[in-house]
């Protein structure tokens, strides 16, 4: 039993997340796609942990989860703040620095 | 591998759905599907601790946080389909397909060799093994991540906090303001009228009737007026005659004759009397 299908699934999920970040306009959905990419990486880490028979991959996946939690908390607070001032959750509307 | 072949199409379809659904709530729910399936895959990959953490932290906490913010920002804050950069969507899709092809092909060509399995590593239990690693080799990373979490919590508090610029109004001040409004502009100081309460229909989307038969705008919420879901109270009385005929009530009822505006209530009274 090879574990290659797991890695392929992880690659597919990562790609879908990346395309989502590039195409979606809603900041919340962009954020969800980032979470999807982090999850795909976690799947690869856990798969490799099983492949090599040690727990370091699982510990790394655990750290990724903690970082994702911290990132979500701050990111959502930023989205809330932007929404409060600009009444919009679109990533295109926060473009004042461009001009 | 059975669980994998069942769950992986579900996960890929749900992930693709995130790209195409218009509403953020639906995207969050599809993401929940992906994360729950992923947690089952962790179980298959002999990582029971990560299975629990995935369900509790990711699906339970992070995704609920997403849903909270979706509710705060507004459920109908859907994406606009207008492209700000021309051709950006097509270009992003092409780049994504190229990335996916490279990743899948590269991964497919690597021969991973025989699977070692977690038998030896999980011999003392998965949670014990992870704890032993966390508190020995990764103890500095563990400390740093604790600092990161505290910083994130503080940062969220600072970002989400809003300073009160004006003092909070007390109840006495609000009462005085109401009476002042009444003296200056004649605004009614009492509570707003309740929505219409009729014998056969009783809901917040039905305006109350004034003594002259016209509807009271104040009795229904402005939100419902903006949505255009306010019902017309006189229209509710339109089908009274057919129903009265079905029930065998004589069409010319003396109790109904003096009523003009509140006729639905009057008829149902007589219906109850006869029943």
Question: What does the model show?
Answer:
The complex is a heterodimer of chains A (99) and B (275). The model of chain A has no long low-confidence stretch (mean pLDDT 89). Chain A is 78% helix and 0% strand. In chain A, helix 2 packs antiparallel against helix 3 (56-86). Chain A has 99 residues and is mainly alpha-helical. Chain A is built from three helices and no strands. The radius of gyration of chain A is 17 Å and the shape is elongated. Chain A has one domain (4-90): Helix Hairpins. Chain B has 275 residues and is mainly α. Among the domains of chain B are: 1-77, NADH-ubiquinone/plastoquinone oxidoreductase chain 6, subunit NuoJ (Four Helix Bundle (Hemerythrin (Met), subunit A)), CATH 1.20.120; 193-250, no CATH class. Helices cover 59% and strands 0% of the residues of chain B. Chain B is built from eleven helices and no strands. The radius of gyration of chain B is 32 Å and the shape is elongated. Mean pLDDT of chain B is 83; it is low at 256-275. The chains are: A mainly alpha (99), B mainly alpha (275). At the A-B interface, helix 1, helix 2 and helix 3 of A face helix 1, helix 2, helix 3, helix 4 and helix 5 of B.
Give the SSE map.
The complex is a heterodimer of chains A (99) and B (275).
Chain A: H1 4-23, H2 27-52, H3 56-86
Chain B: H1 2-20, H2 24-44, H3 48-73, H4 88-109, H5 126-134, H6 139-160, H7 171-185, H8 222-227, H9 233-236, H10 240-246, H11 263-274
């Amino acid at each position: 039993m090879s574990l290659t299908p797991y890695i392929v699934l992880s690659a597919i999920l990562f790609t879908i997340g990346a395309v989502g970040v590039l195409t979606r306009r809603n900041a919340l959905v962009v954020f969800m796609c980032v979470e999807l990419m982090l999850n795909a990486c976690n799947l690869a880490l856990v798969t490799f942990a099983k492949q090599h028979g040690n727990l370091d991959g699982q510990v790394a996946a655990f750290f990724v989860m903690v970082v994702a939690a911290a990132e979500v908390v701050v990111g959502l607070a930023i989205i809330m703040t932007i929404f409060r001032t600009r009444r919009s959750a679109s990533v295109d509307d926060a473009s004042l620095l461009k001009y | 591998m059975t669980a994998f072949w069942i769950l992986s199409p579900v996960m890929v379809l749900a992930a693709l759905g995130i790209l195409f659904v218009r509403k953020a709530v639906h995207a969050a729910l599809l993401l929940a599907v992906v994360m729950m399936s992923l947690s089952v895959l962790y179980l298959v990959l002999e990582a029971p601790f990560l299975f629990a953490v995935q369900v509790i932290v990711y699906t339970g906490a992070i995704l609920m946080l997403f849903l909270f913010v979706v509710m705060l920002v507004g459920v109908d804050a859907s994406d606009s389909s207008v492209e700000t950069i021309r051709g950006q969507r097509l270009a992003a899709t092409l780049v994504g397909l190229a990335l996916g092809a490279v990743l899948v092909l590269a991964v497919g060509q690597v021969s991973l060799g025989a699977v070692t399995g977690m038998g030896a590593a999980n011999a003392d239990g998965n949670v014990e093994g992870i704890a032993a690693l966390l508190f020995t080799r990764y103890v500095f990373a563990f400390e740093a991540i604790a600092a990161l979490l505290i910083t994130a919590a503080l940062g969220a508090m600072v970002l989400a906090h809003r300073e009160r610029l004006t003092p909070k109004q007390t109840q006495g001040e609000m009462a005085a303001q109401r009476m002042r409004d009444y003296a200056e502009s004649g605004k009614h100081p009492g509570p707003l009228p309740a929505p219409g309460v009729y014998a056969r229909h009783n809901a917040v989307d039905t305006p109350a009737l004034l003594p002259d038969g016209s509807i009271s705008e104040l009795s229904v919420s402005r939100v419902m007026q903006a949505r255009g879901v306010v019902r017309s109270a006189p229209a509710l009385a339109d089908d009274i005659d057919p129903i009265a005929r079905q029930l065998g009530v004589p069409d010319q009822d003396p109790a109904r004759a003096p009523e003009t505006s509140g006729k639905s209530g009057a008829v149902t009274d007589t219906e109850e009397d006869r029943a």
